[in-house]
Amino acid sequence: MDTKRLADYGIYKESLVKVTKCNNITDILYVSLHNTEQRTQKINKDEYVFLETGEIKEYNHTENRGENLNSIRQSITNLRNLINNNFVGGKNELWITLTFGENKVYDSKELCLLFELFMKRLRYKLKPLKIDYIYVPEPHEKGDWHIHLLLKADKNLYISNDDLNQIWTHGFVKVNRLQNVDNVGAYVSAYLINIKEGEETKKGARLYLYPPNHKLYRFSRGIKKPESVYMSYEEATKDLNESDLTWKNTLHIETETGFKNTIHREYYNIKKKKENF
Known about the structure:
Blueprint: E1 16-22, E2 25-31, E3 40-42, E4 47-50, E5 56-58, H1 69-86, E6 93-98, H2 108-126, E7 131-139, E8 145-153, H3 161-168, E9 173-176, H4 184-193, E10 195-197, E11 200-202, E12 218-219, E13 228-232, H5 233-237, E14 244-254, E15 260-269
Antiparallel strand pairs: 1-2, 1-13, 2-15, 3-4, 4-5, 6-8, 6-9, 7-8, 7-12, 10-11, 14-15
Helix pairs in contact: 1-4
């Protein structure tokens, strides 16, 4: 991790950055070189064409999503921002984990079907509350799945473990409040990328378990996507005096062909107590 803020580089002060505000979290992204020209176009799931030459190529399909770390990391970032744009740890929110007993599920399509049936029963149980959700399946090393589920209601939301067990029927459930979490997106996404073994946590290890072309998450219609705007870095940070810079990372890319790029991201949290970097 780079120990400097973007402003410490000086030359970036007037640079254009992408700013995404999600309730108390502000995400600032800087990319030194943007590719504004479309060079390829997808034909089907197996082929694409170079627009300049008309040459048709085949995709090199990966064995798992972990081999394409840039793609999976972007999916996690999008999920984190989506969560933070809709969940702040209110009394109308719950984080639920649904696991399986002896009858493990190894097929993600079957998992999604079981989840949809579960949501129909849950909404019937909780009516007249309006319920929205973010559904995130999580793989185990042996290939079976369990489900993380963020629920949000239009009023205070409560359901006991016993009632939830009767609705789920496939194994075990766990219900959590998130009222003491100031960054729900980061808190939940940590469960999706890391593997905890005893006291040791293998950071990023779970990324390699997701199968190719697997949709990392789904969400209901009432969940709102965050909006992003572009502005100078100076403009982006001038109103963040009361926010704490809680996370930052700089990635320098250089290929054998001479292509170079720098990607820098910062997260600010208005609820977080000031800390020194």
